[in-house]
């Protein structure tokens, strides 16, 4: 890194049409499968076909199988030091937001009442993310407290 190497964060921006062209060129069978799912989405057999397609499609590594063969299509942009957090679960997202002082604002912006957000900020400050995780999960599912709508 000290000599100018870059770390791949795999953060990328692309037009959906470009991604489809990349798949059509590098993984034509997979592209055709998704095209069939799209064509059949309003048919009586859409669910059955989609289930079968997902059960039988081969695994694909996006970096190796799609991006590497089309490296000339890609661009790399260096970034200043900005930190890194693996957001593989809700607790990590909430911990990152709390670390930068944005947890309460995020919960409020996501439609939570201020009192609920502050309760969960207090829980985080108390050393546990469990209560905030319940709110975050509720935001995804539409339920925040025992059956209560957000």
Task: Provide a descriptive summary of the structure in words.
With 150 residues, this protein is mainly alpha-helical. It has two domains: 16-73, no CATH class; 90-141, no CATH class. It contains eight helices and no strands. It has helices spanning 16-26, 28-40, 46-56, 62-67, 90-99, 103-109, 114-125, 130-141. Helix 6 (103-109) runs antiparallel to helix 7. The protein is flat, with a radius of gyration of 21 Å.
Explain briefly what this protein structure is.
The chain is 55% helix and 0% strand. The protein is mainly alpha-helical. Helix 1 (16-26) crosses helix 2, helix 2 (28-40) packs antiparallel against helix 3 (46-56) and helix 6 runs antiparallel to helix 7.
Helix residue percentage: 40-55%
- Computed over alpha carbons, the radius of gyration is 21 Å
Order of helices and strands: HHHHHHHH
Report the span from N to C terminus: 45 Å
The percentage of residues in β strands lies in under 5%
Biggest beta sheet summary: none
> What count of domains describes the coordinates?
2
How many distinct beta strands? Answer: 0
Number of helices: 8
General shape: flat
Estimated structural class: mainly alpha
Low-confidence stretches: 139-150
């Amino acid at each position: 890194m000290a000599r100018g190497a870059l770390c791949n964060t795999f953060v990328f921006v692309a037009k959906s049409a470009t991604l489809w062209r990349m798949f059509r060129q590098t993984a034509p069978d997979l592209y055709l499968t998704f095209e069939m799912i799209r064509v059949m989405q309003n048919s009586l057999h859409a669910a059955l076909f989609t289930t079968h397609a997902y059960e039988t499609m081969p695994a694909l590594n996006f970096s190796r199988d799609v991006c590497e063969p089309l490296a000339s299509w890609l661009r790399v942009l260096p970034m200043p030091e900005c930190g890194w957090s693996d957001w593989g679960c809700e607790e990590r997202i909430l911990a990152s937001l709390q670390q930068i002082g944005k947890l309460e604002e995020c919960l409020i912006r996501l439609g939570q009442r201020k009192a609920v957000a502050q309760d969960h900020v207090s829980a985080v400050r108390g050393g546990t993310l469990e209560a905030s995780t319940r709110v975050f999960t509720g935001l995804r599912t539409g339920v925040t407290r025992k059956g209560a709508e957000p």
